[in-house]
Amino acid sequence: MDSQGRKVIVVDNGTGFVKCGYAGTNFPAHIFPSMVGRPIVRSTQRVGNIEIKEKLCYVAYDVEQEQRLALETTVLSQQFTLPDGRKFKIRIEAPPSRKHMVFLGGAVLANLMKDRDDDFWVSKKDYEEGGISRCMAKLGIKT
């Protein structure tokens, strides 16, 4: 729970940054792969794809200013209505520390488990002597 009594779940989807190596007229072809190899009957089809790209894609004029603004204001909030009529609000906050959530979670877990007996932990010595297979065996994972 957070300080206001709301239940909070931290979700790390495992992704960092997504880069796209396409630009110009190649971009619509990769966004709409079903169009690749099909004859374009009308030029309006291609124009439609380009319009979609231009409406849905955004390129900042001042990237640094946009990054500062995003770090300060990245909060998504939306209200949903369940089939029975009840309404609830989902609020998603993306603080700058989100980049370190996996490490922080591991650090908290390690701190909680620090007093467990030695057969719970895999030491550097264990790894150097037996490699990954020894570590997996010690943790009870069959390889």
UniProtKB/TrEMBL annotation:
InterPro entries: Actin, Actin_CS, ATPase_NBD. Gene3D superfamilies: 3.30.420.40. PROSITE patterns: ACTINS_2 (PS00432). It comes from the Eukaryota. Keywords: Cytoplasm, Cytoskeleton. The keyword Cytoplasm applies. The keyword Cytoplasm applies. PANTHER family: ACTIN (PTHR11937). This is Actin-related protein 2. It comes from Caenorhabditis remanei.
